[in-house]
Amino acid sequence: MKCALITLGTSDIAFGKEWQGWKTREEWYDTNRNTHMIYINKKTFRGATEHILKNFDEYSQHIKLPLVTPFLEKIKKHNVRIVYLVCTNQKERNEKDTLYLGEIITKILSRDYEVKLKYISFDPTDFPRLVAFFSDLMNELAKSYEAVFTEVSGGTPQMHSALETATLFALPSNVSVRVYEVKEYNQEVSEKNFVELRRHILRHKVREFLKMYDFMAVKNLMSEDEQVKELCERAISAYNLSSIPEGRNYREKASIGIELIYSNLIVCLKQGRYAEVAGRIWRIEEAVWHLLLYDFLKSKGLVNERDKVKRINSKGEEVFNKSFEKDLLPHGRKKFFESIYLHHFAEIFQKKNEEYYFSKFENVSVNSGKNFYYFFLSSVLENEMNKLSEKERANFKEKTRRYFSAIEFFKQLNAGYPKPDENTKQKENPLTKLRNKSIMGHGLEGVSLRDIKELIRNIEGVSTIDDFLRKLKSVLEDVLGKKVENIFDNFQLSIEKIIH
């Protein structure tokens, strides 16, 4: 047995120019799109086709199928009697959906064909899901038919590509397949040579997805290539931050993690995942402060070779018995504040109303969340610098350049870390506010590209997203003391070499 498979779109129904019925509902129709036909406006397509279906007898003599009819005429000699129509019926109503069009065409074709409808219930631009949908459909058809004739003119470009991909790579080799395309403007039908196109299409699609760092889509396309599949799985794991390699000490581990999150940020920006962009920037800042705190305490002999922090215990003895990463970072500002921070750096704090504040920053409590590290490092570095001569200060600033590089950058990013008033104690900076309102923090609000541009506008020398990434990369290279790369570019390059 043989069957035909057709993807439907808003161009699959039209009326002849002589038809005057469009004048009763002018907003439904587009009379300027084609010199020979009147099409339905995409913005009103679902509602218009629902009306046409309900009043089919009134419209039936005037309906034309500009893509379907030429295709079926082309394959008529092959005696195809079963036609599958792929329509869209998204869970969230969309005016471009073609579910009613499918029923209209079924009524028209049912005189000569057995028509079966298949529905796409999700976004018809979601390529990975479309590939899965059409692959399942092709496997289903392979059980009943020895030949499939497909027409890929109607519907979204992603539907066309996904159907072609499934036809190329999911349909068993014992099933014959022929693919046709109909040009809308003149109804000319052409057949594609899939044997020659197979490798070309695959490379093209893989490269398209690699540009967007969409390793899940590449994995779906190249599912039979174990080498590419393994690279994609590693890239996906890195993107999801599933695992960060262990280092010999906290600095080495943090350096790996920061570079990974920076790479992740670039992917989020490329893919338009702006809530995640805000979350990644926030996480980078936090990770940088943690690393600089580690470096500073280590430079003062307060962190030993096993990454234990020197503190004063209940007996008044100085001991290295708390882990920098597991004790100080999660609990240090509360549980160990007095035994570590206050004990070693008492001169930068003051006590008011039974609560500790930074002497340099009015009304800033030590319980200031992530911002604590900015206030702490700014205070201790300025305190040390004030003890030096003018000549010594220049040398000091050069030695501690990575601290000041981060302090200045994140100060600008956070609009100067606004000081809280005496009553509220705390005031959220722009980055924390943006992150917290989104799903990456405590809220449910969306984050747009405009929000990100607004966030970075106060950084000196930054007017574009690319400027921001260059500036951030420079700061991270100062902090880490090494070149920083986007690790996902390495995955791209490795896959490119395989498919070349």
What does this protein structure show overall?
The chain has about 500 residues and is of the alpha/beta class. It has 2 domains: about 1-190, Hypothetical protein VC1899 like domain (Restriction endonuclease-like) (Rossmann fold, 3-Layer(aba) Sandwich), CATH 3.40.50; about 270-485, no CATH class. About 50% of the residues lie in helices and about 15% in strands. Strands 7-6-1-8-9-10 form a 6-stranded mixed sheet, sandwiched between helices. Strands 3-4-2-5 form a 4-stranded antiparallel sheet. The two termini are about 40 Å apart. The model has no long low-confidence stretch (mean pLDDT about 90).
User: Which radius of gyration do the C-alpha atoms yield?
Assistant: 32 Å
The separation of the N and C termini measures 38 Å
The order of strands across the largest sheet is 7-6-1-8-9-10
Mean pLDDT: 90
Major sheet details:
6 strands, mixed
How many H/I helices?
20
Please tally the β strands and state the result: 14
Q: Looking at the structure, what is the overall shape?
A: elongated
What level of helicity do the residues show? 40-55%
- The tally of structural domains comes to 2
- Give the DSSP E fraction (strand runs of 2 or more residues): 5-15%
- Structural class comes to alpha/beta
- Sequence stretches where pLDDT stays below 50 over 5 or more residues: none
For this structure, the quaternary state is: single chain
